[in-house]
Amino acid sequence: MVSISSSHNELEQDKKPEIIFDENRGEWYVVHTYSGYENKIKVDLTKRVESMNMQDKIFDILIPEEQEVEFKGGKRKVVTKRVFPGYVIVNMIMDEDSWYVVRHTPGVTGFVGSGTKPLPLQPEEVKKILKQMGLAESKPTLIDVAVGENIRVRTGPFANFEGVVKELLSDRGKIRVNISMFGRETPVELDYEQIEKL
What we know:
- The chain is of the alpha+beta class.
- The protein contains four helices and 13 strands.
- The chain folds into two domains: 128 residues, NusG, N-terminal domain (Alpha-Beta Plaits, 2-Layer Sandwich); 48 residues, SH3 type barrels (Roll), CATH 2.30.30.
- A five-stranded antiparallel β-sheet has the order 12-11-10-9-13, with no helix packed on it. A four-stranded antiparallel β-sheet has the order 2-5-1-6, with helices on one face. A two-stranded antiparallel sheet has the order 3-4.
- The longest helix has 14 residues.
- It is elongated.
- The two termini are 31 Å apart.
């Protein structure tokens, strides 16, 4: 995801829905739609869920999107692009009634799956999509590490570097570490998932 200016980013943050990834609340299914009708289907399906009292079985409807910066005519413009055009992702408890509500929404051509059986996304796939969209998800995985402890970076551009924990940013699922690079201490911000204790 491309970073954008803070003032614009704050505006975008206000618009984003709060999606909480919860493995105990239904599963996520990919719904195939007519390309270009994703927003209309999201609106129509939301209305159908309310009018047919399916809120206890159909929870969230997502159109996977990400923001990109484009330059046209020398001007910088932030645009929202669909990650999977022609698809909508629905968090639901699959049964005959909920399947019927989704499947018979105008513009929906079917569920992604094998044959006639819809297949849910794996939890890792859902987390990746939510993270790519910059939406809230389950609480970050925190490891038991304290300021002053030594860690090793497992993934990312600083993989295999070692460092000292300088600050815990638990609410954001991040940690600030000083890594020794080229004989100097360099501060970097990392996700908890990227590090391991030494």
